[in-house]
From TrEMBL:
Residues 390-412 are annotated as: Disordered. It comes from Streptomyces variabilis. This is Lycopene cyclase. InterPro entries: FAD/NAD-bd_sf. Gene3D superfamilies: FAD/NAD(P)-binding domain. Residues 398-412 have a biased composition (Pro residues). It holds the Pfam family Lycopene_cycl.
Length: 412
């Protein structure tokens, strides 16, 4: 049996972030020994993906940042731009391959972190710790024993909730024949897309140069689309809305992020915890996760180094989660016009303050000031409705249809 102080199940953003923090400089105590368990290449390992977040000044993972922007834009359904300078914040983009390479490089010099490939079958409490049972690449059983286990794998199903929407998206990394993008500004929400009958949709453009960008179609709605529907939606956005002209699709990405008021369990045993999206790091109203899991893993690493029980803290305050529950209910019930609501917020609230609000970094009076720019009637009715609603399990599949990334550039 392989033994360690900490076992981390899953080497995605949350698992790698926690391992990186535990291997970094501490408070003078001995660095804990860590086993990082990663799925072998195959269907259990997530595809390449992109994470975005905002922060002020230099960040821990800046060496992996693909691009960043200090100017954001939102467009209403008529195309009117709402621009904002978010300095000193920067909106940052990290691709998972670059993040993994950065963390692997930093961990390579630490004897206290060991990486093991295998398919985890069970995680169970035992006196004084927990056991992780897995099968290695050859199918042989192995056991890892640890004082603390942190499981970052996506949950197979969602806990019961009053409201659950999905943020689902399909995007193309494109290269255009003519200069088509303004590298200094990221288009956060472009509502010139056809709006679904049940939910809202928008375009999302992260320019990487005059000719290169990530262009995505995103929906907040109850269910994912088919692969053909995603492709048609992105093609309509690039051809008919953005009018990009001739372009190459360099790669694609597809994802589904639950937007739910479900209570995500952060502890599943005396020594077993959940981190990342599975542990509630996702902000329900936006789908952003990377910043929340950084707050969570920072607190966990500090607790372990200080000899405290490392229960992951909530990534978002109770007040933030309550406001998100009201917003999700208003959107899901059709009471609030989603595009109009978001455009009104970005138009009337300084963008930097609105991003701080979305990060839970505002005080009560600031939250109330932001809330006054939302449609008061629909929000109030949704808030009054929530206490009487039962929590029900989400029974639809979470996985989107497969949209494989082309191995070589293709021209649509």
């Amino acid at each position: 049996m392989l033994e360690a102080d900490v076992a981390i199940v899953g080497a995605g953003a949350a698992g790698l972030s926690l391992a990186h923090r535990l291997a970094g400089p501490g408070s003078g105590r001995r660095a804990p020994s860590v086993v990082l368990l990663d799925a072998p290449p195959g269907p259990l390992r997530p595809p390449r993906r992109t994470w975005c977040f905002w922060e002020a000044g230099p960040g821990r993972f800046d060496a992996a940042v693909t691009a960043s922007w200090r100017s954001l834009r939102v467009r209403d359904r008529g195309g009117r731009p709402i621009d904002g300078d978010i300095a000193p914040l920067r909106y940052k983009m990290i691709r998972s391959d670059d993040f993994e390479h950065l963390v692997a490089r930093d961990l390579a010099g630490h004897d206290g972190v060991r990486r093991v490939e295998g398919t985890v079958d069970t995680v169970e409490d035992v006196p004084g710790g927990a056991l992780v049972r897995l099968r290695d690449r050859d199918g042989d059983p192995r056991v890892v024993g640890a004082r603390w286990v942190f499981d970052s794998r996506p949950p197979g199903s969602l806990p019961a909730a009053r409201t659950t929407l999905l943020q689902h998206f399909h995007g193309w990394f494109v290269r255009t024949a003519r200069p088509a993008f303004a590298p200094g500004t990221a288009e956060l929400m472009d509502f010139r897309t056809p709006q679904p009958a049940d939910g809202l949709s928008f375009g999302y453009v992260l320019p990487l140069g005059r000719h290169d960008a990530l262009v995505e179609y995103t929906e907040f709605s109850p269910r994912p689309l088919t692969r053909d529907a995603y492709e048609a939606a992105v093609r309509h956005y690039t051809d008919d809305v953005l009018r990009l002209g001739d372009l190459e699709v360099l790669s694609t990405e597809t994802g589904v992020i639950p937007m739910t008021d479900a209570v995500m369990p952060r502890r599943t045993g005396q020594s077993v915890f959940r981190i990342g999206a599975a542990g509630g790091a996702t902000r329900p109203s936006t789908g952003y996760t990377f910043a929340g899991l950084q707050r969570q893993t920072r607190a966990v690493a500090a607790a372990i180094r200080e000899g405290r029980r490392p229960v992951p803290p909530p990534a978002h305050s109770a007040r933030s989660r309550a406001m998100d529950a009201v917003l999700l209910r208003a959107l899901a019930g059709g009471r609030a016009d989603g595009p109009a609501l978001f455009c009104r917020l970005f138009d009337r609230v300084p963008m930097r303050r609105l991003l701080r609000f979305l990060d839970g970094d505002t005080r009560l009076h600031e939250d109330l000031a932001v809330g006054l720019h939302a449609p008061v009637g629909p929000m109030l009715r949704s808030a009054l409705e929530l206490p009487g609603l039962p929590r029900r399990p989400y029974e639809r599949p979470l996985n989107p249809p497969t949209c494989p990334a082309p191995a070589t550039p293709e021209t649509p």
